[in-house]
Amino acid sequence: MKDFKFTCNISLHKVEWNSMRLMKGSENMEENKVKKMLSYRWIVWGVLALAYIIVFFHRLAIGVVREDLVNTFGITGTTFANIGSTYFYAYMFMQIPSGILADSLGARKTVTLGTLLAGIGSVMFGLAPNLFMLFAGRLLVGIGVSVVFIAILKVQSQWFKESEFGTMSGITSFVGNMGGIFAQTPLAILVGYFTWRSTFAGIGAISILLAILCYVVVRNTPQDMGLPTIEEIEGKKKEAQAVERPPLLKSLGQALTNPYTWPGFVIFTGFFGAFVSLTGTWGNSYLVDVYGLAPEKAPNYLMVAVLGLALGGLVIGKISDAVKSRKIPMIAFGTIYVACWAIIVFVGDGKPPVEILYPLFFILGFTCPAFVLGWACGKEVNHPAIAGISTSIVNMGGFFGGAILPPILGKIFDTYGGTMEATELYQKAFLYCFAFAAVGYVFTFLVKETRCKNIYADSLCGRNLKQK
C-alpha cells in the first residue's frame, strides 16, 4: 500500500512537473512570437520604406532635368510644368482608390503592383521618343507610386502602437525624403555621367526588382505570420471592435462628410504645393536665373531644403507624440514656414542675400512637414477600421497643390518672361507660393485636437453615426 502511495505521489509530481514544463514552454513560445513580431515589423516597414524612397525620387526629379527635356523636345515652361504635374494629378486621383486597395487588397499586393507599374513607367520615360510617351511614362509612374504611402500607413496601424503613429509617420517621411535628396545633386551628377535617359531607365529597373522584394517580404498583418497583434501584446482589445465596421462605400462617405477630415487636406495642399514648386520644379531655374549660380551647383541649395524636410518630419512627429498634441506643433511650425516664404518673396525685392539661402532653405524645409500630423489627425478623427481611406483623403491635398501650383507659375514665366527682369519675374511667381502656404497656415487653427488617440467613437460625428 505504501509502495502504491509512493508510486502515485511520484506520478503526481511528474504530471505537475510536466505541466509546469509545458506551461513554461508555452510561455517561452509566446515570448518568442512577441519578439519575432516586434523585430519583423521593422523588416516589413524597411522594405516599404525603400519603395517610398522611389516615390520621393520621382516627385522631385523633374526639376533637375528641365534643361535636358527642353533641349530634347523643345518644350515651353508651361509644358514642362505640366509634365511634372502629370505625376501629381495621377497621385492625387489615386489616393482614394489607394486607400480602398490598402483596406481591401492589402499592403503587400498593393505596393508590389504599384512599384512594378512605376518601374515600367520610369523606363518608358527614359526611353520616350516623343512627348506622348514622355507624358505616358510620367503618368504610369504617378499611378504606380501613389499607392505606396497609404499602404505604409495601413501597415503601421497593424504593426505599431497607436502612440507610435506620429513618430513612425515622421520616420517614414524622413526615409522617403532620402529619395528627394537623391533627386537633387546626386541626380545631376548621374545625369551628367550617364545621361538623363539611362538614369531614369536604370531607376525603373531597380523599381521592378524592389516590387519583387515587396511581394516576398511584406505581410499585411502579424496574424498573416501567426504572430500576436500589437493590441494583444499591449493587452488591449482592438478599437475597431468597439464600433461596428461600416461597409466600404459608407466608410468613404463617412470620411468625406466628416468636417474634421478636411483641415489636414488644406494644410497639406498649401504647404506641400509651395514646397514642391520650389524644390521639384522651379527652384533650380530660380537659383540659376536670379543668383547666377552654375546649373550643377544650384541643386545643392535645394538638397538642403529636402534634407530639412526629412529631418523636420522626423522631429515634428516625435514632438507631437511626446506632448500628446497634433494642433499645437502644426501651428508653431507652420508660423515659421510661412515666415520663410515671406522672406523669399519680400526681402530684397524678391532676392534675399545669397549668404542666407542655405539656412533659409533648411528652415523652410524643416518646418514644412507640419503637414505630416494631418495624416495622423485624419486617422484619429475617423473610424479605426478605415485608416487607409481616411488618410488617403488627407494625402490628396499635397498632390492637389503639387499639381495645380507649378503650372500657374509656368504660365507666369511664359507670359511675362520676355518683359520682366528675372528677380521681378520670380517674385511675382513665388507670391503664389506664399499665398498657398498662408492659406494652409490658417487651417492649422481649424484642426481638431485628438491628443494622439482615435476620438471617432467619442466625437459628435461618431455618436451620430452610431445612432443611425
UniProtKB/TrEMBL annotation:
SUPFAM superfamilies: MFS general substrate transporter. It is found in: Cell membrane. Gene3D superfamilies: MFS general substrate transporter like domains (1.20.1250.20). Signal peptide: none annotated. It comes from the Bacteria. InterPro entries: MFS, MFS_dom, MFS_trans_sf, OPA_Antiporter, Sugar_P_transporter. The chain crosses the membrane at residues 42-61, 73-94, 106-125, 131-153, 174-194, 200-218, 260-278, 298-316, 328-348, 360-378, 385-409, 429-447. Residues 44-452 form the Major facilitator superfamily (MFS) profile domain. It is a multi-pass membrane protein. Keywords: Membrane, Transmembrane, Transmembrane helix, Transport. This is Sugar phosphate permease.
